[in-house]
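Re: folding output
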Amino acid sequence: MNIRDIARIAKVTPGTVSKVLNNYPEISESTRQHVMQVIEANQYDPAANLRGGRSSPANTRVGIFLESVFNPLYSYMEHIFSRHVYNAGYTIFAFHDNFYRQDKWEKFQELASYASTNKLTALIYVGGNFEDLSADQMDTLGCPAIFVNTVLPLPAENARYSSVQVNHYDAASAQMSYLIRQGHKKICTVISSHMDNSVYGVRAEAYRAVLRKHELEDCLNAFLQSDYDGKKAYLAVSEYLASHPDTTAVCSVTDYIAPGILRAIHDAGRTPGKDVAVISFDGTGGVEHCIPSVTTFEQPREDMVEFVSDLLFDLIGGKRKHQHIIFQAKFIKGESC
């Protein structure tokens, strides 16, 4: 019996069961008691040979690798993954890396070496780019791996790794298209870096493709770098608006820098959402509390972390083959457009 079985019997989501097990405060007392009754009635013990796993918790080592540790969405994912792994009684190995410009084959070799040296049973890798690696190279890790929001080569039929992605390119295309449908032709786009080849770089590619499709060539020269830094985004947009006062919209690669963009528009003497529209991506907590609230495409982080956690434990237990899943970002209408 696993967490999905408990959820089915209790008629709740697997995420709700996980939150009950992890003592999340937002779960009502009645729901908590109901789920715990089902758990007790079915003698479910998440720490005892979790999901029938072949390895005992004491001998199971799970690596959690995070690129772009400053990304609040990725930090959130790491936090939840760590909770689930810890509650299973497994040993956690955490590794952070912000150097996305590093040679990817060199980075992958470091990952494989780390997995081998620390005898990892399985690993989760969040972010990054390994798209230039061959299928044979991807199969050298020596343990089950789940890549989350990682740019990867097309998976081989029998690939020995899993991938969980969001439809970054399509959602970013919809993001820019939304502004154009509203009639905007003077659009400034704030990206991370021209050298970024992570999923945030994929979004930038989509923005450019849409602008070319609509023959908005001038907008292709209005891509500003922020390095994921809200202050840099503020300064870049402030400078751009000073020299291009006819700008009517800003497309942001991530919610993390959106507050800086809103402030830059405000300090330029213009009203965000009225004089200058703003649209963003990620759905990280906080942008709904900005004035104006930010229109964004939200990554389904709750569904993603629960799916990855379940998949991780099933791979460890030999209950499931590798999966390649694409989640759909959800459009959230705010006041900024």
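--- second protein (sequence, then structure) ---
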Amino acid sequence: MDIQVQDLIEKIKKDGVAAAEKSASEVKAQAQSEADKIIADAKEEAEKIIKAAKDETARFEKASEDAIRQASRNLVLSFRDSITKELSAILQSETEKAYSSDLLSKLIPETVKAWTANTEASEVSVLLNEKDLKSLESNLNAALKAEIAKGLTLKVDNSINSGFRVGVKDGAAFYDFSAEAVAELFSAYLNPRVSALLKEAVSNA
């Protein structure tokens, strides 16, 4: 009887230890699984944060590069426009200076005679500003005597700072030799050259 009781006690102890060990093993396995999941989730979240940080850095770098490129383009365009404006002003100023009384007294008769020789236009007019007309009128009357006899007139046009225009009475056709028009012709050639030179300078910088 004592032996059976002892065996029963041993069995209960053995079963209890086995159950406890099994329970402990299950708890340990569950804890390990949860720990692994926490680590995996944390790793995934860290990777998301790192990716977002890299994306934001790349976006910021691109925005900065775009801003620098745009600022550079604006600077080049502003510089080009400034140079073009300055050169145009110089051209007009120098063209006005070139239209001396001596030059105009030779150029106007030559222009009028060449034009009237190749056109049937009547009532042709030469337009100058008041100052130039007063100083050149006697010389032009002498040089263009035959043309004036045919209807050529000398007129004041104070919209012309320097130089002259030749045209028919109704304004249907005219040649513009004003300083502004001549300077504009030079500028039309000069502006593309300035742009090309600036592009070349920027590309080689």
